[in-house]
Amino acid sequence: MKIENPMTQNQPCLFKIDDNLNKMVVKIELLNYINPTNIEQEKRNFFSSKYNVNPSFKYRKIDFNAHSIQQQLFSQDIDSIKDEESRTFYRDVIYDYSGLIQCIETIGQGRKFYYNALKSFGTPTEKDVENAKFILHFSDEHFDEKEMIPMYSVDEAAAYFEEFVKQYNFKLEVKLSTKIAAAAMVQNNTRTLILKKNHRYSANQLKVLANHEIGVHLVTTYNGLDQPLKIFHNGFPKNVETQEGLAVFSEYMSGCLTLHRLKELAYRVIATDSIRRGFNFCDTFDVLHNQYKLNREEAYNITLRAHRGGGFTKDYTYLTGLKKVYDAYFNKENLNPLLAGKVSIEHAHIVNKWMDQGIAKENRYENFAFKQNENINPKLDFILKNLK
Asked: Three-state SS for 353?
């Protein structure tokens, strides 16, 4: 379906507000600011202190006028959007972006940031923590050790991803950095895959990251750019849970999700919940390293992800998002609307509505892993089906 000029459709005010918001939020990407700029130095300091001195992280300065954008957000004439459902949606969009700006403004300010993160991402419920503990009860499996040995350099990893992306008709730009908490991440606004410079990758991790970062995060980035409404690229309210759920489900469908990886997501829930309980960096690390017996590298990385900024609660949503997407798939629900951009599962209905109205279109890119279920581990299915 080709849309010649969406501005001539029956909702010109919707497109006008969508375009206004796009101009405002171009720099509002939390992941650009949340990762400390001195990760490696503080890691060395933490280990040399025998895990007794909390890291002192530094962060990139904001390069936009937060107050001005807040004023512009709330000056939009939302009432000019005639369709009630679309009007309510864009009102939610404005509050969501306002919350993200407050998060960015308070990065590094301890509990102030944490409370803003709570508004934007929430925190694990008692049920979420019980689900995490349920996963951690399962004993580790025997797996092909060759697949798990971290033997590939960052340059070899980059070559792997460049080969993987050839099945898609979009450009992959790869950059290396020492200032990210994960082994790899996609920067949505620059369409860039950023790799951790000093990291060594296992064969399984390469497959995981390819299906997670490229198969979902870049596919939804490029599909979002292809949509007439720019909100698909900038992000629906509360889209993170769905996007991360889709990304981990892509690992599952491509046959590279392991119990070890599922436990990593469970530990992230435990770490995020520890912040609610008032734990500092040393406390959370102690729980993971001494109580759960994680090696110090894994314990540090999970603790860093949870405590960056002052308490970043996003990490628990990987597991909750996976459960929602897993259930949707096995209930025969159509996942295509969720791949149309940075869409949230709660708003899939509005994507379908806009498609019916001719102001959204079918996806240009697909996730190839979603075509066939390659998972052969019955234990994973047992766990995922029995999460509450």
From this structure: helix
